[in-house]
Amino acid sequence: MTTFTSDYRHLIRLSDDTGLFEHARHAVVRRHHGYCTDDVARGLVVVSREPRPSRRLIRLSECYLTFLTHAQDDSGAFRNRLGFDRRWRDHPGLGDWWGRAMWGLGTAAARDASPWIREEALSAFAAGAGRRSSHLRAMAFAGLGAAEVLRAAPDSAVAAALLTDAAEAVGMSAEDPSWPWPQPHLTYANAALAEVLIAAGDLSGDRHLLDRGLRLLTWLCGVQTRDGRFSVVPTAGWRRDGPRDRYDQQPIEVAALADACAAAALATGDPSWLDEVRRAAGWFYGANDANALMWDPVTGGGYDGLTGHGPNLNQGAESTIALISTMQHARTLP
Fold it and tell me: Is there a domain that residue 318 lies in?
């Protein structure tokens, strides 16, 4: 089987000099859907993680950073949707796209290979770090960006305050060991909630908080594993004591698990978490409920979802970035 390494072909195909297109029909960009801050921020995360980026990837970092700073207003909020005509379709807000933007900016500020990108990203991060969202996942995503900043600049008070508030937003674990999740349902990017607790506990030295995040992640991995493979909660979600659909599974769920398990391995030094990262990579290689390869070796794109009939062959930005992100972790495994 063809091995995925650092394949950015499709991400480059989805990008132009403005940003990153959201959707594709198979591998063909659907320009009429335009761009969104959510996906541009995800793109900035993965390209900033590359320790030795090519000239093309450096150009993507520059493009994505420019998009995010254009989307940000003076209050630190962000617009989300830009049409192909370069007109914004919405007003600045603090939804999930704000959290994603803060995650992208925090990652670029801490890890990007270009010093000027790190500096500009940190400035934009600081401009948004004083805001707070009423949306739980927005706070979790922003907290992960704050954690990136703190790993590079431990004395950043604004990042520390944002990470603390993000962890508090997750809330307390339920008392029922069969459902310790702090909410009565699982929706999307669930592992990000556990990851922000792990990051906050690790960086603050709060062992109780770290252990709580690890317990939630252990449970989340367990309930999403079937026959040794990841079988993640589908787009319909899963409510406690309710029925759970098997499909349509999304790559973002697998990528969120890979991110969180890699963070757990870093925080604890426990190599068993790396087995979960391998399980996540395996999902893309066909170790899933449909025994289906979840990426296209010809284009380098990630398939948009796993249905009961096999992969959704469209290769949009979110799924392609989920693939790249997971394989970034997998390639560092011993």
Answer: yes
